[in-house]
User: Which sequence fits this backbone?
């Protein structure tokens, strides 16, 4: 495997390791009643949504990357 493919694989693995933990935290965490806690939860949801889109993009790109290797 070439260096770019290894770097890509490492990036995908980081997202795959992090995503389930983030989803679990957001699903089962008690919702705060104070404004600061709610804003923090909103920020985490936004990060998760962006990460999920990035992960889907990486998976789609991986299929195209294989044809170049």
Assistant:
């Amino acid at each position: 495997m070439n260096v770019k493919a290894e770097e890509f694989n490492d990036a995908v693995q980081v997202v795959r390791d992090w995503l389930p933990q983030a989803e679990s935290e957001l699903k089962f965490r008690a919702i705060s009643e104070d404004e600061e806690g709610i804003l923090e939860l909103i920020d985490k949801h936004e990060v998760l949504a962006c990460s999920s889109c990035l992960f889907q993009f990486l998976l789609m790109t991986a299929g195209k990357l294989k044809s170049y290797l």
